[in-house]
Structures are given as C-alpha cells and as structure tokens.
Amino acid sequence: MKPVNIGILGLGTVGGGTVEVLRRNAAEISRRLGREVKVAAVSTRDAQKARALCGADTLITDDPFEVVRHEGIDIVAELFGGTEIAKDLVLEAIENGKHVVTANKKLLAEYGNEIFARAEAKNVMVQFEAAVAGGIPIIKALREGLAANNIRSIAGIINGTSNFILSEMREKGSAFADVLKEAQALGYAEADPTFDIEGHDAGHKITIMSALAFGTPVNFAACYLEGISRLDSRDIKYAEELGYRIKLLGITRKTEKGIELRVHPTLVPECRLIANVNGVMNAVRVQADMVGETLYYGPGAGALPTASAVVADIVDICRLMDAGVQNRVPYLAFHPQGVQPLTMLPMDEITSSYYLRVQAEDKPGVLGNIASLLAKQEISIEALIQKGVIDGSKAEIVILTHSTVEKQMKAAIAEVEALASVSEPVVMIRMEALNG
Ligand code: NDP
Ligand code: HSE
C-alpha cells in the first residue's frame, strides 16, 4: 500500500515530539497499519531543527499554507496552537480535502462547531485526542468505549501545570511564582501561562468533554472559570488537616435542571484516587449509568506523551480514510442529527458543598450568628472548627457545609460578611465528594 503522507504544522514541543514518535516507532506503526506513515512536509521557522529531525525527502517550508495546499498531503497535523492562523490553516486544510489532527483545545472549544460542520461537508476527519489530557486516550473512551452509557458526570484534573503547582506548593511549601517558572521550563505551561493558572486551558478541555459526553454543541461561553492564582496556602493546609486535597477540577454534570460546566479549585477527600494525582499527571473520572465510575490517569502534557495521542489519531485516520463515511465515529460522539443544544446552568444554579473560611472577632455569640445565617438559607453544616486566634482578637473559623444551591450559599456569605464582627471577605471553595 502507498505510504500515508503527513504534513506537520509547527515544530514546537508537540510538533517536534510528533516527528520524533513517527521516526522512533516507524516500524511498529507500519506493522500496526500495514503501510508506512511518512512525514512528507513540515512547516517551521527553524529549518535547521527540521533537517536534523526529518528525512532528506521531507519538504521543509516556513509557509504553513504551502503544507495545507500541498496536493500530496493526506493528513495535516496542526500543532501551532492559538486560534488565529491555526483556524485559517485547519479550515483551509479541510477545504482542500485533507484530514486534520489537532492538539488545539482552544481552537476546538471556541470554533469546534464550525470546524466539524465544514469537515462533515467535505467528508474529512478531524481528530483531537491530544487536545484533552495529553497522552490519556479519554476522547476515545468517551466517544467509543463508553458508547453504551448515559454519561452522568465528568470530573478531571486536566491542567498539568496547575496540578504541578498545587502539588509542589502542598508537598514542598514552594512559592507559586517559582513553581510556575519550573513548569514553563519543563514545557508544560502554555505560551501564555495565565491560560493554565486562571482555568482557561482546563475550561477548553472540559467544554470539549462535556460536548462529547452529552451530545451537545461545544459551548465554551457557558463554562465558569476560576483558577488557582488567588488560592491561599493557608487553605491548602487547612483542607489537608480536614482530610481534603485542593485540586483544580474541570467538572461537567447532567442534572434535571441542565448541564453544569465549570472549572475551579475544589476540595476532594484525600481518600479518593483522584486526590492523589500529583505533579503534571492528569486524571479524568467519568460517572456513567451502566459502567459506574471509571478513572483515566496519565501524563497530561509534554512532548512525547502528547505526541503519542497525535500519532494515535494519525493511525486512526489511516485505518478509516479509505472506508465509507458512515463507518466513521462522529466528531461529537453522537450522530450529527442527535447533537442537541441543552440548557447550560449558570453558576447560581449549580449544587455543591462548600469550604468557608471566615475571619471574625473572637467573642461569644459570633459562631452562633454565623451558623444561624447559614441555617436561614437552609445550609446544613458538616463541620465547623476554629483554627486559631490572629492578633489576639480575631478568630479564623473554617466551616464545611453539606450540599446546597450556590445562590443560597452566596446569599448566606453576603449576610455573614455584613456582620460587624466579620472584617474580611469570606473565602469560599467548592467541595466535591466524588463518591458516586
Ligand atoms: P509550542 O509553542 O512549543 O510550539 C508551537 C509551534 O508552532 C512553534 O514552535 C512554531 O513552530 C509554530 N507556530 C506557532 N505560532 C506560529 C506563527 N504565528 N507563525 C509561525 N509558526 C508558528 O507549542 P506546543 O507544542 O506546546 O503546543 C502546540 C499545541 O498543542 C497547542 O495547541 C497546545 O495547546 C497543544 N498541547 C500542548 C501540550 C504540551 O504539553 N505542550 C499538551 C497538549 C496539547 P516552529 O518553532 O517550528 O516555527
Ligand atoms: N498547558 C497544558 C497543561 C498542556 O499544563 O496541562 C496540556 O494541554
């Protein structure tokens, strides 16, 4: 069989890794496919790097459009990132009848619906395993492995940089800024690290998984984002004393009222497997009606793990490119006619339990006042402890609540903050039991 010709856009962390995987494992990949996969063209601004990585017959160009227009290219791997030039390149590759593999979650979270519609019109495949949780085959699991189920919820540690920072802060007491620099040097962080630490990157990924889980168009605008940059190390410590770890979770859940879609720091009981996922590792927990709970764990970033997912997509396309269109797995896991817009819940309507830290005067009646304001909003307290006295007159009170609707929690917090005995804003962190 004739070789499949790949055009690679960008030789950065993932692009370079992809060329390396295709080179190092060429024999095994050919053995799986019964045909050769050839890097036929590469777009890069670093011709010297490309020469060192690629064969003598690879076209090397600094014009990425030359690759997407090249007649001999079967599959384009978009590994630029971002949404500007990458979107034009992907759409042009599709218009030219090329299959596309991308690791670009931002592009898919924001423009996925348009890209999938164009790809469907042109009968080409768009694969994106590397876009969510790097090397973990979670897209394959959601689209294929769990196809017998009604998926109920997904909760994942899906930003390696944030997890690395939270782990180092907890284990070594390192400063936030130092750990962020280390994550950038290791190639985990996005070009703009605010995307990692403010929850955007995790938001892109949970938005994509939500669409696949519930068969609904991608809707990043509906995703609530709260990152880790304002997290106080005191709360990491108090949470640990209470038997919890704080993780940046992407969460999506189907409820009777609609779909929850959110990213925020979350207290998770330390006995859960996911609470023990540390460093740059990712984990995704899926709750589904027939199988129950499944957990997927692995490296969420880095050159070779991410390239492993890119190359798996290339292999998938090679296997299906000559098969009938009806034999392909739909982009959003459901037949296009079955993909339906669903009600997306605003944060005020989500249900969660909460960790609160209140700084108040250390005098009789203060705790009672706070507890009765919570009771007024029908919020039940699971645990309440006084952590210590600050400046001789103020107490730090930590409260864990049972499940409640977020607008009730916010109303109670506003009333607590209005008490004369409470001087600082209340710290609120959501908690998830993740117990099925
Ligand atoms: P890098 O910044 O390391 O590489 C991107 C490369 O794309 C650049 O090195 C450059 O290639 C090329 N490029 C980007 N913008 C331009 C431009 N305007 N003009 C010309 N060339 C451009 O990014 P990553 O490899 O880390 O990320 C690539 C994609 O993979 C992103 O979508 C990212 O979100 C995703 N991803 C990354 C992971 C990781 O661990 N890093 C994990 C999972 C997904 P060259 O240098 O060859 O000119
Ligand atoms: N910056 C991302 C992370 C890379 O830290 O998880 C993987 O998408």
Number of helical segments with 4 or more residues: 15
Strand segment count: 17
* Coarse structural class: alpha/beta
Give the CA-CA distance, first to last residue.
48 Å
Multimeric state of these chains? single chain
Biggest pleated sheet:
11 strands, mixed
Fraction in helix: 25-40%
Name the shape in a single word. elongated
Stretches where pLDDT is under 50 for at least 5 consecutive residues are none
**Binned strand content:** 25-35%
Ligand inventory reads: NADPH dihydro-nicotinamide-adenine-dinucleotide phosphate, L-homoserine
Q: How large is the radius of gyration?
A: 24 Å
Q: Mean pLDDT, as a whole number? A: 95
EC number: 1.1.1.3
Organism: Neisseria leonii
Pathway: Amino-acid biosynthesis; L-methionine biosynthesis via de novo pathway; L-homoserine from L-aspartate: step 3/3; Amino-acid biosynthesis; L-threonine biosynthesis; L-threonine from L-aspartate: step 3/5
InterPro entries: ACT-like_dom_sf, ACT_dom, Asp/hSer_DH_NAD-bd, HDH, HDH_cat, HDH_CS, NAD(P)-bd_dom_sf
Structure characterization notes:
- With 436 residues, the protein is α/β, with parallel strands linked by helices.
- 37% of the residues lie in helices and 25% in strands.
- The protein contains 15 helices and 17 strands.
- Helix 1 (13-24) packs across helix 13 (303-320), helix 5 runs parallel beside helix 6 (105-121) and helix 6 packs parallel to helix 11.
- The radius of gyration is 24 Å and the shape is elongated.
- Residues 355-430 form the ACT domain.
